[in-house]
């Protein structure tokens, strides 16, 4: 950034070009930045809620492919062999993440997340009725109550969660 500013100062001697007015030269980039960022964050939030954070991070490199494709179509930029090979590698990586995620969901039937439900840990309830935790006058002892685990399936392996 500092290097770019130095080169720009050397190349542009007219200081009037550096003046930012309150017109379309300022409004257009600010508006597109705010609206574009808002749409991107909203879509990322929706995808994260529906599919999880893996898909949001996996699809981020796809933006480079979209920019390269739109640049060649709209701006008539030349695509180089390295860009095409990089795009293929990114798409193969994205496919492998999606394939691995689908295998992960089908491999463990007890931990799958169905549509409309959420994957939750077992519920821990405090045993406040235990005679060790209450005195005869009804006051609660300062000891930590012993937790009781409920709703734990017998065939679940918690080490692979």
Automatic annotation (TrEMBL):
<protein>
    <recommendedName>
        <fullName>WAT1-related protein</fullName>
    </recommendedName>
</protein>
<keyword id="KW-1133">Transmembrane helix</keyword>
<dbReference type="InterPro" id="IPR030184">
    <property type="entry name" value="WAT1-related"/>
</dbReference>
<dbReference type="GO" id="GO:0016020">
    <property type="term" value="C:membrane"/>
</dbReference>
<keyword id="KW-0812">Transmembrane</keyword>
<comment type="similarity">
    <text>Belongs to the drug/metabolite transporter (DMT) superfamily. Plant drug/metabolite exporter (P-DME) (TC 2.A.7.4) family.</text>
</comment>
<feature type="transmembrane region" description="Helical">
    <location>
        <begin position="81"/>
        <end position="99"/>
    </location>
</feature>
<feature type="transmembrane region" description="Helical">
    <location>
        <begin position="55"/>
        <end position="75"/>
    </location>
</feature>
<dbReference type="InterPro" id="IPR037185">
    <property type="entry name" value="EmrE-like"/>
</dbReference>
<dbReference type="InterPro" id="IPR000620">
    <property type="entry name" value="EamA_dom"/>
</dbReference>
<dbReference type="GO" id="GO:0022857">
    <property type="term" value="F:transmembrane transporter activity"/>
</dbReference>
<keyword id="KW-0472">Membrane</keyword>
<dbReference type="Pfam" id="PF00892">
    <property type="entry name" value="EamA"/>
</dbReference>
<feature type="transmembrane region" description="Helical">
    <location>
        <begin position="26"/>
        <end position="43"/>
    </location>
</feature>
<feature type="domain" description="EamA">
    <location>
        <begin position="24"/>
        <end position="98"/>
    </location>
</feature>
